[in-house]
TrEMBL record:
<feature type="domain" description="AAA+ ATPase">
    <location>
        <begin position="156"/>
        <end position="308"/>
    </location>
</feature>
<protein>
    <recommendedName>
        <fullName>AAA+ ATPase domain-containing protein</fullName>
    </recommendedName>
</protein>
<dbReference type="GO" id="GO:0005694">
    <property type="term" value="C:chromosome"/>
</dbReference>
<dbReference type="InterPro" id="IPR027417">
    <property type="entry name" value="P-loop_NTPase"/>
</dbReference>
<dbReference type="InterPro" id="IPR001270">
    <property type="entry name" value="ClpA/B"/>
</dbReference>
<comment type="similarity">
    <text>Belongs to the AAA ATPase family. PCH2 subfamily.</text>
</comment>
<keyword id="KW-0469">Meiosis</keyword>
<dbReference type="GO" id="GO:0051598">
    <property type="term" value="P:meiotic recombination checkpoint signaling"/>
</dbReference>
<dbReference type="InterPro" id="IPR003959">
    <property type="entry name" value="ATPase_AAA_core"/>
</dbReference>
<dbReference type="GO" id="GO:0005524">
    <property type="term" value="F:ATP binding"/>
</dbReference>
<dbReference type="GO" id="GO:0016887">
    <property type="term" value="F:ATP hydrolysis activity"/>
</dbReference>
<dbReference type="InterPro" id="IPR003960">
    <property type="entry name" value="ATPase_AAA_CS"/>
</dbReference>
<dbReference type="InterPro" id="IPR003593">
    <property type="entry name" value="AAA+_ATPase"/>
</dbReference>
<dbReference type="Pfam" id="PF23242">
    <property type="entry name" value="AAA_lid_TRIP13_C"/>
</dbReference>
<dbReference type="InterPro" id="IPR058249">
    <property type="entry name" value="Pch2_C"/>
</dbReference>
<dbReference type="Pfam" id="PF00004">
    <property type="entry name" value="AAA"/>
</dbReference>
<dbReference type="GO" id="GO:0005634">
    <property type="term" value="C:nucleus"/>
</dbReference>
Length: 416
């Protein structure tokens, strides 16, 4: 079977529909004449490529599973093209009066594909094809409902639960997945919307009002759901706060209103997930305390662990490339991780980075992305350094981060 590669062409805001149709041929010709790496982003704006500059902003080349070449060989690959424009409006908050003359945000909406989520998918690194599998699950769900597969025969709830330790990319992955799906299903949906429910603020105050708020919020969501040309993705972050609210009620520390709020939310979810254009994502970093009623509703329960050495390497590699681009680090090529996996000869700096990755095992993705910043701020004097100096500074920043983590873990233990 011929392997596939997905290539996304992101058009400039002012490109018209004629450009959409004619651009693929022009981009294909351009790409065939340069070296294109799988899982890479080409920013046309920055590169100043005159043939594409007027209409194309960015080209995103997807991963190619089980592919052993380091460049995209167009002669032996089937290309799936996706041409689109990004929404530039950014998030819109839904605020409600909290009774103390202040406003609380109960949900946030983003129109998809959004400029705020550009490259998020490409910058998340997990092992075991987690991203590809989630994409396939979601595409299968949509295909089954489009083809009218009976839900009573083949059960499919359209609910994803991503759980795991803090800072492992759960929220980012849900958002990036919603964006990717909108792009992949561009022939089925004209656009998408991501509605992020702030469950924490919904359950933390004035429970007697919250039941009404849940219903109000969902009546807005239903307005979107009715338009079958829009893919509606609902994200419930920190879903464990549902269980927390219910348990507090059972132990008598909160009024029984809280249980009504949890039930109102679950009922509303049950109603909207019947629609063929809806997907529900939930995240939790406390797996053991997620409400079982919610766990039961999830078709896909994906655990996201702390990054492996390979994933850490990719995170650091992307950070270093960014700083090379910004002329903060001297331009020097670091071999990709695939090169190291095949035991090929590599530079001293690449080995230094690999050792640093091994030392960083146990840090979350969130901590890893802070390391280059800490290295530059705390352990370097000038504004420009060579790669070796920078990696040495990163090493010190990793030691500091590990020390701080064990210090706070110790405090937590003492307070138990
Ligand atoms: N596997 C990963 N690869 C690359 N970046 C990652 C990874 N995991 C986390 N990050 C980065 O860490 C930051 C935090 O991620 P995010 O908020 O999605 O984590 P989370 O699991 O939802 O955290 P929390 O449970 O605390 O809400 C983001 O900037 C994200 O890009």
């Amino acid at each position: 079977m011929t392997p596939n590669v997905d290539i996304e062409i992101i058009l400039n805001e002012y490109s018209n529909n004629t450009t959409m149709k004619s651009i693929i041929g022009v981009v294909q010709k351009y790409l065939e004449n340069i070296i294109v790496r799988p899982n890479s982003v080409i920013n046309i704006d920055e590169e100043g490529i005159s043939v594409l500059n007027n209409s194309v902003k960015t080209i995103i080349v997807g991963e190619i599973p089980n592919y052993n070449k380091s460049f995209v060989d167009f002669k032996h690959l089937k290309v799936n093209w996706f041409v689109y424009k990004l929404d530039t409006d950014g998030p819109v908050e839904q605020n409600e009066d909290d009774g103390d003359d202040a406003q609380t945000t109960i949900s946030t909406q983003i129109t998809l594909p959004s400029v705020t989520l550009l490259n998020m998918w490409e910058n998340l690194y997990f092992d075991n094809n987690i991203k590809q599998n989630l994409l396939k699950y979601a595409e299968t769900m949509m295909e089954f409902s489009d083809k009218g597969v009976d839900n009573n025969v083949i059960s499919c709830n359209r609910v994803f639960l991503l759980h795991g330790p803090p800072g492992t990319g759960k929220t980012s992955l849900c958002k990036a997945l919603a964006q990717k799906l909108t792009i992949r299903m561009g022939n089925r949906f004209s656009s998408g919307i991501l509605i992020e429910i702030n469950s924490h603020s919904l359950f933390s105050r004035w429970f007697s009002e919250s039941g009404k708020l849940v219903n109000k919020m969902f009546s807005r969501i239903n307005d979107f759901v009715e338009n079958r040309n829009i893919l509606v993705c609902v994200l419930i972050d920190e879903v464990e706060s549902l269980a927390h609210a219910r348990n507090q009620c059972l132990s008598g520390t909160e009024p029984s209103d809280s249980i009504r709020v949890v039930n109102a939310l679950l009922t509303q979810i049950d109603q909207i997930k019947r629609h063929p254009n809806v997907l529900i994502f939930a995240t939790s970093n406390m797996t053991e305390s997620i409400d079982l009623a919610f766990v039961d509703r999830a078709d896909i329960k994906q655990y996201l662990d702390m990054p492996s050495v390979q994933a850490i390497y990719k995170v650091y590699h992307s950070c270093i490339n960014e700083l090379i681009k910004a002329k903060i680090i001297q331009d020097l090529i670091l071999e990709p991780i695939e090169h190291l996996m095949n035991d090929q000869p590599h530079s001293a700096e690449t080995q230094q980075l690999l050792d640093l990755c091994k030392k960083s095992l146990g840090l979350s993705g969130r901590s890893l992305r802070k390391i280059p910043f800490l290295a530059h701020a705390l352990y370097l004097n000038g504004s420009f350094s060579n790669l070796n100096e920078f990696l040495t500074a990163m090493d010190k920043a990793v030691e500091k981060e590990i020390w701080e983590r064990s210090y706070f873990a110790g405090l937590k233990q003492e307070n138990k």
